[in-house]
Amino acid sequence: MSDLEKFREEARTWLEQNAPESIIGVRFSELDGNWGGRKAEYSNPDMKIWLERMADKGWTAPTWPTEYGGGGLSAQEAKALNQEMAALRIPPALVGFGLTMIGPTLLRFGTEEQKQEHIPRIVRGEIRWCQGYSEPGAGSDLASLQTRAVREGDEFVINGTKVWTSYADKADWIFCLVRTDPDVKKQEGITFLLIDMETTGVSVSPILLISGKSPFCETHFQDVSVPVRNVISEINAGWTVAKALLGHERTMIADTFGASSGRGQKRSRSVMAEHAIRYLGEREGEIADPVFRDEVARNEMDTRAFGLTVQRAKDAAKAGHQPGPESSMFKIYGTEINMRRNELSVRIAGPQALGWDGPGFDEEEIAVTRDWLRSRGNSIEGGTSEVQLNIIAKHVLGLPD
Amino acid sequence: MEMVLTEDQELIAKTAQDFVNEKSPIARMRALRDEGDPMGYSRALWKEMAELGWVGIALPESVGGAGMGMADLAVVVEALGRSLAPEPFVSCVGLAAAAVVELGTAEQQESWLAPVASGDQAMAWAHLEPETRYNPTAISTEARQDGEGFVLNGRKVQVLDGFGAESFVVVARSHGSSGELDGVSLFWVPADADGVSVERQTLLDSRNAAIVQFDHVKVPHASVLGEAGQSGEALERIIDRGTVVLCAEMLGGMSEAFRLTVDYLKEREQFGTRIGTFQGLKHRAARVFMEIELARSCVMAAVRAVDEGNEEASKLVSLAKARCSDAYILAANEGVQMFGGVGMTDEYDIGLYMKRARASELTLGDANHHRKRWSGLSNY
Ligand SMILES: Cc1cc2nc3c(=O)[nH]c(=O)nc-3n(C[C@H](O)[C@H](O)[C@H](O)COP(=O)(O)OP(=O)(O)OC[C@H]3O[C@@H](n4cnc5c(N)ncnc54)[C@H](O)[C@@H]3O)c2cc1C
Hints:
The complex is a heterodimer of chains A (401) and B (380).
Chain A: H1 3-18, H2 45-57, H3 75-87, H4 97-109, H5 112-123, E1 129-132, E2 148-152, E3 155-166, E4 173-179, E5 190-196, E6 202-207, E7 216-227, E8 231-232, H6 238-257, H7 271-280, E9 282-283, E10 286-287, H8 290-318, H9 326-349, H10 363-375, H11 385-396
Parallel strand pairs in A: 1-4
Antiparallel strand pairs in A: 2-3, 3-7, 4-5, 5-8, 6-7, 9-10
Helix pairs in contact in A: 1-3, 4-5, 4-6, 6-9, 7-9, 8-9, 9-10, 9-11
Chain B: H1 7-23, H2 26-34, H3 43-51, H4 70-82, H5 89-103, H6 106-117, E1 123-126, E2 142-146, E3 149-160, E4 167-173, E5 184-190, E6 196-202, E7 208-219, E8 224-225, H7 232-265, E9 269-270, E10 273-274, H8 279-308, H9 313-339, H10 350-361, H11 367-377
Parallel strand pairs in B: 1-4
Antiparallel strand pairs in B: 2-3, 3-7, 4-5, 5-8, 6-7, 9-10
Helix pairs in contact in B: 1-4, 4-7, 5-6, 5-7, 7-8, 7-9, 7-10, 8-9, 9-10, 9-11
The complex binds flavin-adenine dinucleotide.
């Protein structure tokens, strides 16, 4: 047996022995996942036990170095672990921006002291992070951000407002872009700073979304003092860090939305095909409505083509090829497939997709509707599709400005 | 399945590209068209390609081939597709020869494939009938048992590279009716057999195609491929092989059409600036880029799946053909639009790609057809 197969078997055994019964098969989406943090609430206490067990092995962050509490696994081992979890229908023990965004960024740009301070607490789900990039006047043109940081000795004093800060009301720390020099080219006066949300002068106000949830907030900073040692990389060098993090964010978004489904369904029908048959009926083994049948196939095939492209990029990277600006392509395509999938779900459900709450609609139907509304943000968050197209045109195709 | 070219494949790709640049620029295809050459491709160059090992790259070593796979052949065909090289890789290698590999005895393979692998002869795939469209079993060419052998009667249309081919692999029916799997039979028939007549057709992409008529053509027992009446399932696999070869060609064509377009965007000036500065065009170009990247992934997966005999091979072939059909058409249509008026002229090459895009889209199933096939294979 190869080392990898051996690992796979050990992992499976461990998972079977350690995953609490009550979490198996639990649906996890952005909203239901375990995000951890000081304010975490557990409707199922087993989820907390599950987090602790996984964190003890470092398997919440399987590929991170063991010296910071990570699992120290190779990419292949981590993939095997994921596959085993999926096969056993075990949800991830922890999700969130710590694992997907700030963690990888700190591992690359952080000082030893910063890594020691933050990484283990991310792995253990003790600290929940949020992202303070966007401002009312700085969205796509992120580099025009105005939140001011003025140095006073060993501290920066922060004043300004961030907006669309997802889960700021539930987060413990925020990674922030602040302006430290207003007199240079806009990209050159930005600093990447970590701020404890409990610091005096930080306040948040939730914003209600069209999906009826309010996962994001306005975050205000009024004379907030932050130690200079919380700067990541150099002062005024934050733009480089910010862009690297956006690369992680886009890959994460693409992985979440695009590459997951459409595979390994040789005999059993896909979820979408089942959904279509539920609402449209079946005739001679086919979705009864041929137009929708075609749309289901189109969506599945798009998803598969996308998954194969993600795999190709990964295989090319493993083979030592230079990764290109693919994260932009993945961001556009992955999110758009997910949005089309949600549109299709809603149209297949027909009038049953019109429920908002209350009698006459089951939980799944309400979810179809709410998920569709939420998905409309996919092509906006993390840099809009238009901005990604600009990046491809410029950096891949070399088209002139 | 590793979705990356091996070092050997990288090398083959480079050799093929150098060959295309030197010996087969698109001007060659244009000249063949303008001269009204009935063969439509060059036998001399076909022979050279065979000597380089390309014609037989995926054929067994026993017939003089290299015994490699579709993944290797695809790399060569993609390079040829860039310059619209009209040599008969799809019909002769992808379909007819694949049928002999799939169903032929060792003896049949040796006598029929060896002259193909050496580039001395071409074999064509005589399958399509007016009512076939994309349903492989919708054929009614009749194969009547006659002692040990058979007698063929029927009319094949759009036999690709059929004009001038030395032999045909003919798909006929020994029993059953059009559309049924049962009764599908394959035969090898030399072009000079009694009762075979070949008439050249003219297609929009100026490729070689012919109507081949079979009038009481006697086929001896030794020329039956596989078991008469039982080749319906093999037919699907053969067509899958031909389809991935076509996809590889399409990938080359769309990539080159797009390269020409992007170059033009960087060069043509209007309103005092290069048209590539206009965001209305930039975003559309970026979308074409993405579609081509996705098509490439699908083709890579499909050729590898066919080589592995993967149980998902047919699905991945349909995925590849659907994507290539849509992406090639998109790249060509957007290309003509972005070239503006000159895009409509015969002088500019982009129009040649548009014609080939359409022809290859409507050969071996368009995107609609392959989505339907995908649904069927996915059990819904
Ligand atoms: C669900 C959700 C969660 C989010 N979470 C966070 C978060 O946690 N933290 C955070 O910092 N931010 C977050 N954002 C903010 C997000 O990053 C911004 O909304 C996004 O970058 C776009 O900025 P904007 O909203 O100001 O739109 P604008 O930049 O004003 O864009 C408006 C429109 O103009 C287009 N446009 C702008 N510039 C160009 C151009 N150069 N070329 C062509 N078109 C252009 C855009 O594509 C868009 O269609 C979130 C957003 C959403 C929807």
